[in-house]
User: Fold this.
Amino acid sequence: MARKKEYIETEVVEKAMQLFWRNGYETTSMQMLEKEMGINKFSIYSSFGNKNGLFLECLKCYKEKISNIFEKFKNAPNGIEDIKQFFYDSVSSNFNDDYIKGCLITNTYNEFSNKEDKAIKEQMNAFMNNLKLIIIDKLKKDSTKSEAAILEQANYLLLAKHGLAAAARVNSKKEIEDYIEMTFKNI
Amino acid sequence: MARKKEYIETEVVEKAMQLFWRNGYETTSMQMLEKEMGINKFSIYSSFGNKNGLFLECLKCYKEKISNIFEKFKNAPNGIEDIKQFFYDSVSSNFNDDYIKGCLITNTYNEFSNKEDKAIKEQMNAFMNNLKLIIIDKLKKDSTKSEAAILEQANYLLLAKHGLAAAARVNSKKEIEDYIEMTFKNI
DNA sequence: ATTATTTCTAAACGTTCGTTTAGTTATTTG
DNA sequence: CAAATAACTAAACGAACGTTTAGAAATAAT
Assistant:
């Protein structure tokens, strides 16, 4: 053994994640990352392989960051009302630092829809499918509808969630919250 | 005068527009544009100034392309039912060539939300505001609600439109259409 | 037919990108 | 203290980007 690292990986990943969240993947350059993370390119590459590897780590970090919202959602006792609350919680986290960043997952989903990056797309699909299953589970609590009808409702909500996350970058918090209210009127 | 151009500008713009529509702005390189438009870089620059200028021209071309949908919408005699029909028409045009491309305006809006490009953003905002005014107009036909309530409804529909355009890149046409039905359930 | 003018081709431009490498500095171990 | 090892700095890498330019080809006017 020899010299020790002068940085903690989880800490610099958090900083990188914030930068990716604000600017997106492509717009964030290694030079910007160097500055924001406070470490040299060499250190980034030795710790995370390459830009893509760093980004995957940042996605994990983001999921960790929002895991409390997800856990709360999963463990909530009610049905539709819990889904609505989850939407509100998500919006709140999207407007964190009075800086509109939207949802990193949705942003990434949209940015990568043009590209062919299996590793990223798998993560995105896994996230969305997971969310869908939870929503279906909650819907069943409040409904005696057919499986097909519930699936349709779940798709509706998932699409609404996707839409509001996309819109969170260009709309005000008030507009987003009005939208949530309207969305659940239709359920 | 001397040699004549060997291409028609409106024709090569149409081709460029299709490419931007499929791939987005950044992902589309000048090299790809050369190939798709069938003309040399020099010709592109002499006709459109630069990549940004070409893209602005493509946005105009896209608006022209969807202008029939817009005209139909503007001149429609009814209220809410016409808005719904407009949504359906928009979705149809998004799924044009069995290739999912979404809406170029919305794609651009999302892609440029990270950046600072005044010319593009102005075009986007103008488009959205125009759409909003038409929607408000239609809503008033079917409603005696307060101005504020109508504005809220208009915001809801606009956000829904934005959301479904974003989602059009990752969802099926069936899912999108189910979503439209749900959206208009309680309007 | 010659000249002037415009468009064409194709190569090169300077930047920036993500990535790698050579050499220095610091820490651990014998 | 000296040797070994790992992490640092900083410079350079090749490739791709958008853009420009020099020269050939083609058409109009004289």
Chain A is about 75% helix and 0% strand. The longest helix of chain A spans residues 118-141. The mean pLDDT of chain A is 90.
